[in-house]
User: Fold these one by one.
Assistant:
Number 1:
Amino acid sequence: MEQTTVQGQSNLVREVLEKGICVRCGACVGICPYFQYHDGKVVVSDWCQTSTWRCVQVCPRLPYDRASLYDYFYHVNDCTDAIGPHRQVVAARSGDKLVRSAAQYGGVVTALVIFAMEEGLVNSAVLTDRGGDLAPKGVLCSDREAVLGCAGSRYSASAALSELNLAIQAGNDRLAFIGLPCQMEALGRLSLSEPDGQERAGHVELKIGLFCTWALDYRALRSYLKTKGIVEIPKKYDIPPPPSEVFIVETNNGRMEFPLSEVREIVQPGCSVCEDMTAEFADISVGTLEGDKQWNTVIVRTDKGMELFEKALRAGVLEQKEIPSSNLEHLKEAASNKRKRALRARGEESNE
Amino acid sequence: MNRISQKKGGTRMLLQANEAIARGALEAGVIFAAGYPGNPSSEIIETLAKASRDLPIYVEWSVNEKVALEAATGASFAGCRAICSMKQNGVNVVSDFLTNLSLSGTKGGLVLVSCDDPGGISSTNEEDARAFAPLSDIPLLEPSSPQEALDMARWAFDLSETINNIVMIRSVSRLSHSRSDVQVKDLPDFDVQPYFDTKVSFHTFPIVAKHQARHEKLRMAEELFENSPFNFYRGPSRPELLVIGSGCAVDYAIDAIEIMSLWERVGVLKLGTTWPLPRKLLLENLQKSESILFVEDVDPFIETNVKALAAEAARQVGVKTFHGRGSGDFPLCGELGPSHLLEFFGNYFDLDWKDQEFRNKMGSLTKGKIPPREFGFCPGCPHRGSFYAIKTALAWDDRDGFVSGDIGCYTMGIWPTGFNQVKSVHAMGSGSGIACGYGKLEGFGFDQPVITVCGDSTFFHATIPALVNARFNNADILLVVLDNSATAMTGFQPHPGTGKTAMGQPTQPVDIAALCESMGLEVHVGDPYEMKETARRLYDLMQKQGPRVMVLRRKCALVQGREGGFPYDMHVDQSLCVGEECGCGRYCTRIFRCPGLIWDKEKKKAMIDQVICVGCGICAEICPQGAIKKEAKG
Amino acid sequence: MELNVIITGVGGQGNVLASQVLGNAAVYKGFHVSIGETFGLSQRGGAVMSHVRLFKEPRYSPLIPPNRAHIVVGLEPLETLRIAQDHANPETLFIVNSRPIYPLNVIAGDVDYPDTAWIRQVLEQGGSRLYWLEGTQLAIELGGPIMLNMVMLGALCAIQSFPLETKDIKDILGEIFPQSKLEVNYRALDMGEELISNYEN
């Protein structure tokens, strides 16, 4: 690739890709031919010469004024709550055992997406597939079976926003997007980007965020597992809550445990500067409920999220219970710690 | 009936010099011809192959030049006249055999034709193959017109049989690809009975004795050269300047002398027999003038040897002032052209030779406004798809991978038309050989993926040994065979994979994929037009180890164009095209670079050049807006 | 007598075939002919130039000396302009097809293709006469852009100072083309000739 004098794209490449802090959210992929995602990596295939650089505007690893996002989505200038602006936090699970058995924990995400589709709130949803020989990637689902096929945790980045970009490009409307905090931030930035960000973000009707402490570099994970003698495609990954400190990989040949300290070595370096654990710019954020594998923690943030959540409860698609206060405390502490670590890593003092 | 096969002589016909060489060989009664395609030599075998429809001769495209000369030598040992042709690079390939063959000697007249490419118009170098004549101690003939090419080719077989050794004819691009009216002679009856006389044997032992005999043969040739009509002097008895040279440069010298009316001041000694040099003739002519100008392509071959001769005979010929490439009067590299001669004479005799006023006027009008014409793959060329897929896979992999290139149209992968993916190109098959080296560096921490490419014809020519080496030594190499079912670069000659011989007869094709499989290699076959699928496959293969092969199969676009054409009518929906905007940035015209897809300057959108586009349809896949539309041809 | 004609264009335009046809016709007409061709990579869209030289006496020299072309037949405007400075002179007559074939570096936006009106103007100022023809358009009407070379040969034959007529070309076409292709090539020659005889400037 012969480099030319291009400002925007080359800045993004220098500041993010070359520094190794790309978190493979996929926001820059699929909006142009110059960024591509394949097998767990976002790469530049050619140099562009335009002067608009939507890629730069949406990248969650480039500095950005978070207050403008709070303002745009929640009409507040700042948020001191470690888990971000929200309407309520509850414990919930799918009312359908089948969904629960397919899911990692309480199946809330799967149930909500299917419900939103069946209710006609959305036509289709972009989720992350299971991956295989290659790293997980985004996939456009428009029926229950497809969504169920995506259930479960990946622990690796998937650049699923690229699939959302392509779905919008292809003329899909009323989309749901399910993704990590970095991806929710990128989607938020998209709404504020020039020249057509608002219009493109307008095609996304529902954003469901997933709690995230960090994500793994899939290519590094594959190499790591290879050194551990695992060459077949894993069926499931799991990280039980502390203090277990293990990473569990299930394959057709059984279940293996690895020290989490080793696995942390292959966390994407870009995750260390991320200050958002609970996907603050989603309509609804979902994560584990510590100490209870059958349930999820659910943070309902927006009116739209609230409406869907309540409708799902009424329809019996979801069941809810109050979240134990110790759990909520732990969650806030974990979220706060992530933010502190990120600010330290970025060389900024914590303002808390 | 082909006029090359015309039995009766006496007529004048327009022939390309390569055709003239073929006709000369036929007039000498050649019954066996072999060669390997390569610009500018290919038309010799092609012409003979066409003649084989009318005449009882055998013609083949061999798998490579060395085998070609060996096959022709078989015919010679059996008493038949045989010719073998190639480009300059090919002589390197045959050289191992040639230097031994010239020790053993030959029987039936055997002629090796090398067509060199001064300036490297269609080559990877501009090597002067004449060096192989002194290296192998064989006679060398250099024609300087199509007529002489014909006459020399005819006579070369007599010479070969007189001295019982192979004779080399050396042409150059300019001559080989020129045409002129040529007087032909009758064709013989071709009634030869091949027979290998087992009382005689052909080998190089005893070596020193054979070496001595080889020099004796050369001395015999020199004697014949002294009176050869291919050498002549034209000019005054005591010229101020004596031009000595060979090939087209002599024609330019004569033109320049005519233009400047210098026939009373300049003499020309044109040499057609340039190894061994006819000493007596040279010494006699050297005495005519104190100033000598050498004109030849490319190396100062005659110049160096005549200087040595003049040094030996200094007492006899006197002190000289020498001019030429070796003396710095002409560039040491590149082809000599008419302007070199005019400029030299202009300076030497202080004469005006060019219309400077006109040149200045045009120069100032056009300065900086004439863009060069970049080389590129043809519209519809499968290589564009292959390199696009390779580029994509290497980008996905993101370990700074690159392509080890080889010889063929796809050599252009070094340029933007092949997305600058190819980082090295040398000789036939060398891409894979070099890749064998990269493929053993992993243990030292080398992590860059390397894809090596070769065409189908190149695969057979010289890639196979490299591939066997990779298997033998377990080298991590990924070879992509760009199989376009043709020796496209040189004019679509058949090769072992095409199922047809030079004479048009059907033959069992050698299956590249099956051959690779039989070596125990992992082999995949794909379609260069399916760029995404090919990129995915290549990416997967890059993650593996050991020798791997991907055959990308799709007919050369020029062949496809002749055999039924392409399926699509293309157009750009300009309402969808975003042109220079973010989201595209002229991706198709700026990056993909197909000559059929052009830029509408006024509307700032892409458009199809309907005169150039053939309708392969692959550009529809790369448009981020889906604006490039393909419709089945009506 | 010496008549130097340059045919210039881009690979794929039938340049070499045109010079070959011309040379054959000239030999039949009794001329001695020398044709030099620069191709090589030209099959791949590069520049191609043929030097066609007609003599009364036997002579061979494959390149026309600098600035000594009497007639330049340009199949492509930029390629015509490219060779003008080195090969033309104030007496040179240009017959040029107006339709550009854009080089890849132009398509890519690396460099600009000069305005064809400007090329026309420079060539008009450069030589003694310029015939600026819409040859490609005519070729397409005749059946395809590949007919351009015969259209331009027809135009060349209409030039007073050029010693061959379209009939001389037609007489030898049978050696080059199959019977089925002859009629359309004859028509191309005739139409090309008419482009010159009806030329209004």
Number 2:
Amino acid sequence: MKEKLEQLKCEALAAIEKSDSAAALEEIRIKYLGKKGELTAILKSMGSLSAEERPVVGQMANEVRGAIDAALSEKSTVMEKAAQEAKLAAEAIDVTLPSKKAKIGALHPLNKVLDDMLDIFQSMGFDVVDGPEVETDHYCFEQLNVPADHPARDMQDTFYLTDSLLLRTQTSAAQARTMEKTQPPIRMVCPGRVFRADEVDATHSPVFHQIEGLVVDKGITMCDLKGVLEQFAHEIYGPETKVKFRPSFFPFTEPSVEVDVTCSECGGKGCRVCKGAGWIEILGAGMVHPNVLKNCGIDPEEYTGFAFGIGLDRLTTTRYKISDIRLLFENDKRFLDQF
Amino acid sequence: MKIALNTLKYYVDINVSVEELCDKMVMAGFEVESIENLRDKMSNVVAAKIVSIAPHENSDHLQICQMDTGEGELVQIVTGAQNVFEGALVPAALHDSYLPGGVHITKGKLRGVESRGMLCSGGELELTDADYPGASVNGILILKDEYAPGTDMRDILGLNDYVIDFKITANRPDCNCIIGVAKEVSVVLGTAFKMPATDYKTVGGDINDYIKIDVENYDLCPRYVGRVVKNLRIKESPEWMKQVIKTCGMRPINNIVDITNFVMLETGQPMHAFNYNDLADKHIIVRNAKSGEFIQTLDEKKHNLTGDMLVIADGQKPSCLAGIMGGLESEITETTTDLFLESAKFKRDNIRRTGRALGVRTESSGRFEKGIDINNTGFAMDRALNLIEALDAGDIIEGVIDKNKGLPQNRILTCTTDSINDLLGLVIEKEEMVRILTALGLETKLDGNKLTVSVPSIRDDIEGRADLAEEIMRIYGYDHIVGTPMTGSVRRGRKNAERIKSDLIKSAMISMGANEIATYSFISSKALDTLKLSEDDCRRRAVKLLNPLGDEYSTMRTQLITSMLTVLSTNYNRKNTDVRFFEISKRFIPSSLPLTDAPAEIPTMSIGIYGAEEDFFTLKGIIEEVMALFGKTAKFQKSNEVFLHPGRQAEAILDGDCVAVFGEVHPEVLQGYDIGVRAYVAEIYLDKLFCIVPEKTVYKPLPKFPAVARDFAFLCDKDIPVGNLQDIMREAAGRLCEDVTLFDVYEGNQIPESKKSVAFSVTLRSAEATLTDEQIDAAVKRILKKLEAAGATLRM
């Protein structure tokens, strides 16, 4: 009996080894382990054995069943794996074929740069406010220390809607509005569209964009202004960027400065982009003029502040090396897709 | 303000290079627009003597000249000019020379004969008679026979200088003159400033015997100074004076006119010279023009005057447009014998208004507009008389008439040195502050830490502490400012609610594949015609600019569609297929016209799409997503915009309010924009979306019980909107309804002519339990019954 079992095991394992399909494996399983299978037949005939032999043979038969089961299962796994591999191989594709586009759009480059800037200023605690594009003479000029007939009005060619309504020439108009509404401490930026009667060419547009910044508090100094602008310049142009103040004139700040940064292209050595100067003018700034504070109901003896105005269009064209500002308003898809 | 370096050196010691001077001036607040090296104008052009002239055998107009260029060996140059002669000294551009404008001259052959350069005319050297006598003659410039052959033409022409163009800011009108700039240079360099002479002798007499002056309007003319000069000796001015005048872009005329212009450039005070003998009644009246009066000015233009314009009149009529331009009748000419000379201050805004009204702007009016110092008026007059004497231009009559209502004294400002340091964030020594202010002509006393500053009228831009701080700082040096980090409460800045919502929409639009565009806020007045809007359409009530750049940019837009269509057109015509654009901007809606208050600025989004994948429903899908951002589902209904396809347009309704209009662009409008494909546009009124108070997001448990789906096909009239049927089904299914989706609309075969077949899948689910057959059947019955009533019958 034992020999029979041993032989059966050998036969079954050999058959499993040789089999080449799931169907063949199943046949083998039925042949040996099925209800009418050979192992079952042997087990059925165990009744003829002695009481001593029976457990020994029983155990052996179980071992044989276990071995055949394991072999079947192992072979089956191998065959499934092979089949899977064959299927995957057959399904191989040319990965260089074009994609099925999952297209996303893009922000306009001006707003892309604006978003970066707002993020920088928000991180420094500046609130973002908005002001109207149609302004009154009062907010755009009078409150900003530019009374009627002041020669400084000639600095800006203004579009008028009526004698007293105009398209704002500067986001500075938001300064007065903010100061009238809010008591210091004030820390705000106002981005927006501004208008000046400039004929359209590669570097001029009657519609352009600025970001006005304003800080008013006790003890604000010109060094604070430089600190903020340095921080801004480092974030926008890189940590090596240096900031330089040059005296200038704006009616609503005193002292007033133009602010230059080291050319991000050459690092200050001088190149075509900065026309050899090593510096690029990026904005105008200054300490809020005491008359402006006074006009807006803030005591200039108690509070000081600074303001700055950044030209967004210029910043955008320099960042992306856009040679003609008109491209920004033409909205050719091939242009817009690049940002 | 253009000033030659050599001119500047006459007034101030300059001990640095022109580049260093300019750098320092920039850092003191005087931006340099340009530095022109006059030697760069030409090179290798010399005076050369024509030794012999021979005819050219292949030409009847060319001549071959042998030139003595001072090098020993003669140089052969062929010329086409006919005015040359043997022995003449002429400018010769030698081989490898440059003429003004960058013209490069090299040797070559002219009809087979070698020519090693070119003889030059005055024009070729960009010279006129004013630069060199005879330079305007048509032909080669014949030089005075006083230079050795080989002398560099630049030395002959005095091109040994730099012209610096300083940009003078609006707060420093005192620097629109040589003296003003020179004083700044002296402070910046720390060198001595030399005031020009103002002394002169008179020939006696009494001015009051010659002229009477009355100022009728002291408001517009706070000071008027007059002098008389007899026996004029009109001639050319000296070269140095002509140079200064030409450098500033003006034209030398004669000694008297040139002196008035020179003094203006030197002192900043415009002056005017009248022909004394042309003044009726020997009476000068400074008064407003009378209506009906006119004047013909020096440029021979005739101007009709109005009562708000100031004139200098004689006893009968206006003789000069005050501060702007003199009259032709009292012009100084070569035959003028006697002079009445004016130095006055006129109110700046009046000069500006008159100049604008008449369209005249001169060097003089420009200076009055920017503002001149009332205390400088007499000084300028004395300087002019000094020059008249120095140039022997006439005999000065004793006496001055100086009409004014009192001259301003210096203003006294006080502030502490600490308050200046506090503003700057620096610690500048008190003594240094005093030194700088004093050097700038602001007499300053220090008492403890208190500064007492005496500000002369010429610096009326200095009003208080901030101005003093700036004066100190620009000389002390802005490089001393060291950035300090912001201090204060630590919090991130906030955006306002509208901007946050607008950003949200933008990112959603971008994720839906749309590109953001940017277009101008003003449009052509005719743009609305392209939309075929009716005459009484409220969008035609638009705000107009009073002074637009042209009609193209004349009207504040009341809608964003025309701008979008323009962009679609640009892209279509550039062969860009498949575009999806959006813009968030403002519409400007006036409350009344003519405008009394600022118009409402209404945030609005436009969308424009075209391409193979785009149709009405892709646009509708985008709009639904935008509504979904605000937690809302809009209802859609047919709309009737004239610029949209009458059968393919809709408006989105939220809470009874129209929040968007969209659809396919009308073919005629498309044609107007030269767009050759179907395009779709939308306008979404963001103001209405921004008003929505967002509901707080609260998690809903996922369903525990299975859903049941039932499909139905109905037959109904073609014109019943599917949306209505959907609404009916949703309502009929009631609480159990999870979703109603359309999966087929069919017209044609087997369907009666005026009918369509629509098929829906209805999903029912209860949150409490698995639905029973009875519940499902009841819901289905309700749906069928309601639909039946609405004219839709179940297809079996």
